[in-house]
Amino acid sequence: MTASPVQRRANVIGLGLIGASIALALKGAGWNVSGDDTRGPTVTTALDRGIIDESGLDVGAEITFVAVPVRSTTNEVLRALAETTGTVTDVGSVKTPVCRSVEHPRFIGGHPMAGSEFDGIDAAQADLFHSAVWVLTPLEGSDDATFAQVNGIISSFGADVVALSPERHDELVAVVSHVPHLAAATLMGLASSRSEEHAALLRLAAGGFRDMTRVASGQPGIWIDICAENKTAITSALGELIAGLSNVRDLIAADDHETLRSTLQAARDARSNLPTRVVHPEDLAEVRIPIPDRAGSAAELFTLAGELSVNIANFEVVHVAESNRGVAVVLIDSTKSEIFRGGLIARGFRPSVQALS
Fold first, then answer.
1. Which of 130, 134, 246, 326 could form a disulfide with 319 if both were Cys (CB 3.0 to 4.6 A apart)?
2. DSSP string, 16-63
3. Which of 246, 272, 298 is the last residue of a domain?
4. CA atoms in the 13 A half-sphere facing the CB of 294
């Protein structure tokens, strides 16, 4: 008689929108999930709804996800490392403070680029991370096994993994997430103030305005913490945005229609070239890369892929018996295979590429 497989076990600290959605995604994949939250009623709700199986932390859990506000993340990561024996990752949108404070072989920083205009456990969705980008922020000496483990688990949620250094992550997310939120809040404030003079204004607010300002519905308290933790990158990106808007204002004032047209066309072209997720197996190529058996090798491959805008659809490391080397096997969009191959060769790797079709 075949023995039943041992159920995998995970912890989630913080049962808001992201934490509860992670718990649901894990449960959907057959995991036993323990949950912890400073708000006792939230834990009770999670238990009652079957979002988690147990309250508190499971000491022997394979992985612990820390999903708390960014100013509390470092302390909770350290607690998880002290009170459990498994891997620990977090989901905060600011990475440098926690990653540079917690250089531990069982910790890998992370940030799922997913969310909802609704907040809290009531808005949790098991498929929230499907087709979303999930950034991992390993350090130079991060443990390959830890990185591969976290990558495998979050990939099972349907997420696309991108690896960046913590500092690079914070610079980029300031541009694509933090500043857009502040810009949306500012624009919403402008429209609101005008609506006092023109009652019909907000009734006309449809289409693009609603799309652009949707993120302004986020919880203010969360954003106060984000702005404090990522102040340097956010203020720098805001300066660039202000300069860009000033330039557009001057073009309009000067009736410089041709330059304005070029500016708008460049933005349209850039928008149409935003990357999309690889979904068809026939569009994939397998890249096999011999790597040394040392900390940081796998993270280096992911970081290079991120720099080259190469999406890694699947990743695993195969260790070679009686050798200090392994082979990283990755699946990528076949149209990017030569770019990735060239980048790997430039870094001293010797990859082989084979189309799956």
1. 326
2. SHHHHHHHHHHHHTT-EEEEE-S-HHHHHHHHHTTS-SEES--TT-SE
3. 272
4. 5
Dig out the tokens for 313 from the structure: 């659809």
CATH number at residue 254: 1.10.3660.10
Q: Verify that 76 and 144 share a domain, yes or no.
A: yes
Q: Which of 129, 164, 199 is the last residue of a domain?
A: 164
pLDDT of residue 324: 57
Beta strands in 122-199 (DSSP E): 133-137, 160-163
Q: Residue 200 class from Cβ within 10 Å (0-12 exposed, 13-18 middle, 19+ buried)? A: exposed
Domain that holds residue 212: 169-272
Q: In sequence order, what are the beta bridge partners of 290?
A: 327
- DSSP, res 280: -
Residues 173 and 256 in one domain: yes
DSSP state of 121: G
Can you give the pLDDT at residue 207? 60
Q: Are residues 186 and 159 in the same domain?
A: no
> How many helices, marked H, and strands, marked E, lie in the chain?
13, 12
Return the ∠ at Cα 191 (arms to 189 and 194), rounded to 5°. Answer: 110
Nearby residues of 120 by Cβ (< 8 Å), 6 or more positions away: 16, 17
Cα distance between residue 286 and residue 330, in whole Å: 6
Maximum distance among all Cα pairs of the chain, rounded to whole angstroms: 82
Q: Is residue 115 part of a domain?
A: yes
Mean pLDDT by 10 residues, the chain (357 residues): 75 96 96 95 96 97 97 97 97 95 95 82 91 89 88 92 91 92 89 67 66 78 91 96 95 96 90 60 80 74 84 71 67 87 88 80
